[in-house]
Amino acid sequence: MKRILAVSLATSLLALTGCSGDPGGEGRDELTVLAAASLTDVFEALAEDFEAEHDAEVTFSFGSSTDLAEQVADGAPGDVLATADEASMELALDAGAAESATIFATNVLTIVTPPENPAGVTALDDLAGTTWVRCADEVPCGRVALAVLESAGVTAEPASLEEDVRATLDKVTSGEAEAGLVYASDAVAAGDAVSTVEIPDADRYRTSYLHTALDSADEPALAREWTDYVQSEDGRRILVEAGFSVPPQAP
Questions:
Q1: What's the pTM?
Q2: Is 237 inside any structural domain?
Q3: Whether 123 and 183 share a structural domain
Q4: Element (H or E) spanning 135, and its range?
């Protein structure tokens, strides 16, 4: 098993120094980031300042952490991998895609409903008899949901199992489901499109987000600068505003 770092011990903050594009000014450096679906909004927000600071263009591929990690393990191209749990990241690390990964944020599960909460869902027990959805068992948000439901003794079956947390959220915001289990950050991203019901003791099942600059990166220096920026003061602030929690910074 490869090494996973709880926090960056000495963040170099190369992101603050900038990274020049093509020396002749003929083009911009391109960075490809493969990231968990629940990072969609916050990573796109982070990319705005990063691109301006580094004269670079960041391209994202968002999806299930498990799927992305398996693709990286199979040799799919990319510069950075960011997953929503350690198990997914280990798939890539065990395949030799990188030497280590760092935890840069955490998240908890919550219940979302349409704005008026027509089914009157106020707790996990209320899911019984409603049309509700969650992530599939094999993806991080599904694994967390299974643990939370089992702990609460809830046996109600979902109407569907979705490929990732954003697909789960979409079922609720579109009105196809009366409730869904998503991350707190997804509820923040949805804004007024959902109502949120907190899950007691959800913190016991907090999930960790990890990232790494891949050994096969076409832009290894830029990849490291991206991960440094995500862990910088500005990056941490943006993550918290988006509904994530961040680990303590090293002194």
A1: 0.85
A2: yes
A3: yes
A4: strand 132-135
Residue 81 lies in a domain: yes
Query: How many other CB atoms are there within 10 angstroms of residue 129's CB atom?
Result: 9
Q: Which pLDDT does position 4 carry in this prediction?
A: 63
Cβ distance 244 to 82 under 8 Å?
Answer: no
DSSP letter (8 states) at residue 19: -
Residue 251 falls within a domain, yes or no? no
DSSP string, the chain: --EEESS-SS---GGGT-----TTSS--EEEEEEEEGGGHHHHHHHHHHHHHHHTEEEEEEEE-HHHHHHHHHTT---SEEEESSHHHHHHHHHTTS-SEEEEEEEE-EEEEE-TT-TT---SGGGGTTS-EEEE-TTSHHHHHHHHHHHHHT--PPPSEEESSHHHHHHHHHTTS-SEEEEEHHHHHHHGGG-EEEPPTTGGGG-EEEEEEE-TT-SSHHHHHHHHHHHTSHHHHHHHHHTT-B-PPPP-
Tokens for 136?
Answer: 């599939």
Amino acid 242: pLDDT: 97
Q: What is the pLDDT, as a whole number, of residue 12?
A: 34
Quick check: 207 and 81 in contact, CB under 8 A? no
CATH of the domain at 230: 3.40.190.10
The number of distinct structural domains making up the chain is 2
With a cut of 70, list the residues of the chain below it in pLDDT. Answer: 1-27, 250-251
Q: Specify whether 46 is located in the same domain as 163.
A: no
